Amino acid sequence: MSKDKSDLSNYSTINSSNPASVKLIKNNELMSINSSEPAPPLSHQHPLDLGIEVEKDVGGIEMGVLENGIPYLTQNGLSQISGTSRRVLYDITQEWEHHFDDSVLTKGRMSFIKDYLLKNGFNEPQLYIETVKDGSVSYAYPDIVCMAILEFYAFESRTPNPVAIENYRRFAAFGLRKFIYEALEYTPSDKWKYHHDRVSLLKDSSPLGYFTVFNEITGLIVDLITANLTVNDKTVPDISVGLAWGKYWKENNLASKYGERMPYEHNYPDYYPQATSNPQTPNAYPDQALPEFRAWFKQIYLRTKFPAYILKKADLLPGGEPEMVKIANMYATKELEK
Question: What residue stretches are annotated with the BstA-like C-terminal domain (predicted)?
């Protein structure tokens, strides 16, 4: 804890000599300290295919919202609201990774933080989410992680931390998630919009006497959205299903049994990146093959291929990989219950 005490004594010196270092954010009077101290680079994590919806410096606090709706603070922002240095946050981050698999921890900082996070459903091997912004790596600390660290420095640290105490009281009443959303003027988007817009475009696109993969897997897409998976231009399940079905079709020479496939015109909504190549020409399949497709989809794709596909999208779900595992297993569970 010696480093923590040193950082807090530095905070006292900063505030006594420079009252301007205390800032107010809107009506919430969020306290912060000026800290330009750089932190060492964090251990390498592959940046996720997950963009930043919005990020701003609000009253000296760097905060943002990821594409999947997770609000976060940058390491510098977390340093500001918790009244501790980025070096200490770096130490906490590394300590979490080194002891992530330990079943028993000695009483102290890491024991408190791990207990707090596990009780609140956070069980990720890193405390931050690594993304890329403007070509540079960005470290986003989710709101739940920020609250765990803030509560420790407000009430559990050996040395009183007035910045952490003041900010914790405000967040406990208002909620960090709500605070970030309002400070950034962010409104969560309609989670059904991407799917509904594609349904509208593709409603009458299949040739007479043929079915399309997209129309046939609407039930799967609805299940994913209902489970709060962000289904958008980065999660297009019909591409995964279409590729696997096309391979199965060729390997089993199903054209000789049902007749040839027929290309049809497919368009993405204008705001999809994929729209730059509109129109695409995927295949529609003879209606006679529909029973075989449905059997293949339920018995082969959902059981053997869907779990691998969906686990690659874990970063798009607020609950991360543990929640994605539940989604990956939900169709297998349905089969067992029948």
Answer: 192-314
